[in-house]
């Protein structure tokens, strides 16, 4: 038995706790650029969301992303992030 725990994070869309490796990280960099961080190591404020487009839409609808990233996210950025999440699957 390994005994080592895997890091858990809460999805801002569905609110479920899942393993960090099974989630995508959306990051607001210090330069105010929003990206989907596939490495989970990018510099900046991050929010985790399931690798599901519907969960991402729910996170943007219920303002979970805005609360986590502590800023207003423009609609064009949301559609761009949604496209990146579709491609990341």
Brief overview, please?
Helix content is 33%, strand content 25%.
Distance between the termini: 31 Å
Order of helices and strands: EEEEEHHH
| Count of helix runs | 3
CATH class: Alpha Beta
Strand order of the largest sheet: 4-3-5
Estimated share of beta-strand residues: 15-25%
Overall morphology: globular
Averaged pLDDT = 90
Major sheet details: 3 strands, antiparallel
Number of beta-strand segments: 5
- What would you give as the CATH superfamily? YlxR-like
Protein structure class: alpha+beta
CATH fold name, please?
Hypothetical Cytosolic Protein, Chain: A
How big is the Rg?
A: 13 Å
Low-pLDDT runs? none
Number of domains: 1
CATH architecture: 2-Layer Sandwich
Q: Helicity range of the residues? A: 25-40%
Structural features, described:
It is a single chain. The protein has a single domain (8-88), classed as Hypothetical Cytosolic Protein, Chain: A. It is 33% helix and 25% strand. The protein is built from three helices and five strands, in the order E-E-E-E-E-H-H-H. The chain has helices at 53-61, 64-69, 75-88, and strands spanning 8-10, 17-19, 23-28, 34-37, 45-50. A three-stranded antiparallel beta sheet has the order 4-3-5. It has a two-stranded antiparallel sheet with strand order 1-2. A hairpin with a 6-residue loop joins strand 1 (8-10) and strand 2. Helix 1 (53-61) packs antiparallel against helix 3 (75-88). The longest helix has 14 residues, at 75-88.
């Amino acid at each position: 038995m390994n005994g080592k725990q895997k890091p858990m994070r809460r999805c801002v869309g569905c609110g479920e706790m899942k393993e960090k490796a099974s989630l995508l990280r959306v990051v607001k960099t210090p330069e105010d650029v929003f990206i989907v961080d596939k490495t989970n190591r990018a510099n900046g404020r991050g929010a985790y969301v399931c690798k599901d487009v519907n969960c991402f839409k729910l996170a943007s609808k219920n303002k979970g992303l805005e609360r986590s990233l502590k800023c207003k996210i423009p609609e064009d950025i949301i559609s761009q992030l949604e496209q990146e999440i579709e491609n990341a699957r």
